[in-house]
Specification:
single chain; 10 strands; disordered N terminus; seven-stranded mixed beta sheet; Nucleoside Triphosphate Pyrophosphohydrolase; globular; 4 helices; 227 residues; alpha+beta
Length: 227
């Protein structure tokens, strides 16, 4: 294992006249080294030769890792580390046909506005269900009395560590949304039938939402057949 600590600049050095000063310097010197610690390989036969942080941001960090794969090949993998996200499928079953709540917001990476299920990243140490309840309330103002884990998957396992937990939220209760300062979100209910058409004709382009809509369509179709 190789650890890379960041060099402390002269401006960061203060006279160590107190115990807290020493703790500060120790923290700054080892912050990157701690994050650069290679993850324990989940696949038997994988050897992590080295790992170093190449980027660190508020939501994720990136490591360049030299590994030996089970095949014996020595390769470099650049991995985006993310604590994971949650996705919520708010389902309203009170009308003639079931409806789902979608959000429309601008996504800079895609350079367009997109229809999506409510979703968001987990806080440090936060459980999936706790995060899902928080995100639904913050973004839409709705809460739900019934929750079910529908899907759990890797978003792009070739380079991204992030997983997504997709929850079905039923028996909705309307409240007041409290989105973050940089979030401009428009919410609207669509029938599941319409949402399927939006997936098939390309109006819904977000992968997590496509997966959720198709899962829900299959579930509702199966339920209808068994009645």
């Amino acid at each position: 294992m190789i650890f890379h600590a960041r060099r402390i600049s002269r401006s960061e050095v203060k006279p160590m006249t107190r115990r807290t000063d020493f703790c500060y310097l120790f923290f700054m010197a080892t912050k990157i080294a701690r994050k650069a610690k290679p993850s324990v390989a989940s696949t038997p036969g994988v050897k992590v030769v080295s790992s170093r942080v190449t980027y660190e941001g508020p939501m994720f960090y990136v490591t360049a890792e030299q590994i030996v794969e089970p095949s014996g090949n020595s390769v470099r993998r650049d991995i985006v580390h993310h604590r994971g996200s949650v996705v919520i499928m708010p389902l309203d079953e009170r009308g003639k046909e079931p409806r789902i709540l979608l959000e429309r917001q601008y996504r800079y990476a895609a350079k367009q506005e997109m229809w999506e299920f409510p979703a968001g990243g987990k806080d440090e140490g936060e459980a999936d269900l706790t995060a899902a309840k928080r995100e639904l309330l913050e973004e839409t103002g709705y809460s739900a009395r019934e929750w079910k884990l529908a899907l759990h998957f890797y978003v792009s396992p070739g380079f991204l560590e992030e997983t997504m937990a997709v929850f079905l939220a039923r028996d909705l209760v309307k409240g007041k949304a409290t989105p973050e300062a940089d979030e401009v979100i428009y919410s609207k209910f669509f029938s599941v039938r319409t949402a399927i058409k939006m997936v098939m004709d390309g109006r819904i382009k977000d992968a997590k939402t496509i997966a959720g809509v198709l899962w829900l369509a299959k579930r509702l179709d199966t339920s209808a057949r068994t009645k």
